[in-house]
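Supplementary Note 3. Input sequence used for the single-chain structure prediction.
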Amino acid sequence: MRRLERLREERDAVVVAHSFQRPEVQEIADFAGGKLECALFAAESSASTVVVCGVDFMAELVAVLCPGKRVLLAEPEAKCPMVAMLEREQLLRMRERLPAVFVGYVKARAEQLELCDFVCTHESALQVVEGAEGDVVVVPDSQVAEYLRMRTGRRLIGAEAYCPPHIRITPAEVKMLREAHPEAEVLAHPQCRRDVLELADAVLDSAGMVEHAAKSPREEFIVACETGVLHRLRACSPEKSFYPASERAVCSKHRLTDASSVLWCLEDMSGEVRVEEEKAARLRELMRRGGAIG
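The predicted structure, written as discrete structure tokens, is reproduced below.
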């Protein structure tokens, strides 16, 4: 640990970790939270280097919001399976074929988001979708598209990508836990299936869950989300009880990163992730237009 601290100082680095990471990784990070949360923290930091403990597109998001900083992905093999399900060429063909407004969910690759008209969080997308004229295409997550359909009542076209750990959570599991903990509030991630979202008391991303649980008068929560978020929930609200909706909701790609990944990344200054500034500037504008950032 002393070696890690020495390298962090020598490299003028800050370490950010997504809340789906291993507890040990979250503990050594300067900040742990949601992907956008981490990127904004890194942007506000005075450090010249950012080590990202997360998946590939999270490192790109950090690079987009941190112009002039060196961004390193601690585990280069941590590649999100969801974004890999939608190739850039497929999205280009969709754009050519469909005269529609393309709404990009912020959890996507830069090469996907740059082809969209807006880049949004699941919350800011509601206003964009409701105000859009004509057809709307939501990429890349099909379940976020389903969530937006459920909330707005609009007909939407969704891509066929999905988040494997969130899709594994079933309504039967949530119902069983609700029977065992009738006073518990059900929190569901927007990348869950619609039949799970329909059982939720609140639909929130990982950062929203942490904030909501801390403020809620409830003492128990059923968490329909990737299980890594439980560490941060329990750390921020230690007096409350959190039950994973499914023990199968684990992202194997997030779990590739461990403390040694961070150490060797700083030792070698390896795993650099770059987004050309012209593209990054366009993406920042799309994020402002879509309400993902101020």
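The chain has a mean pLDDT of 97. The first helix runs from residue 2 to 10.
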